[in-house]
Amino acid sequence: MIQTHARPANSADVNPLDLHLRPASARDEAFLKSVHDAGRAWEFQALKGQVDDALIETIYQQQYSAQHDVYFNAFTLAHYAVIEWCGQPIGRLYADFRDHEIRLLDINILPPYRGKRIGEILIRSLCAQAAAQRMPVTLQVHPMNPARQLYTRLGFRELGTRTDNSPGAGSFLEMEWRDVTATPAGSR
After folding, report:
1. Contact 94, 78 (CB under 8 A)
2. pLDDT, tens only, 94-121
3. What residues form DSSP beta bridges with 93?
4. Which end of the chain has a smaller Cβ tally under 10 Å, C or N?
5. Four-way CATH pick for 16-177: 3.40.50.720, 3.40.50.10380, 3.30.450.40, 3.40.630.30
């Protein structure tokens, strides 16, 4: 279960107690797709005005469907949550709680709510849960994704590059966060 009660320093814009994660359901499908599309907009910025918007929408739909299928088929025990702030849905967080790690599959916040430390609060909460269990938080991110800077600032380190051979996927950075103050599991 994802918890959001830990309050990090410098979170003046958002009170973590106003954040809520609720399980995503079929009724959230249109919202989840809109969050996906907003999160991928940076990739299509250069094509705006050069390519028909209908083509971009088709690509978004194909990417969303493929991503949805991969997540829900490969990570059957993961938590798929809608992020709410003061009762308003503002994003999504998908995390797979494994025996040896917490895998952050996806965190995406709608543009009007970015820059308020919401992602930071949620990621720090995952890291706190991982630290309590003496395990890492892992993720993958496209090298050009602006979120990479946040992950680095929060203490994630790059482990290497992984190439996804599915159409249009490209390369991703594997990143990991570990509690540097913790004693590794089994070493006591």
Report:
1. yes
2. 999 999 999 999 999 999 999 999 999 9
3. 81, 107
4. C
5. 3.40.630.30
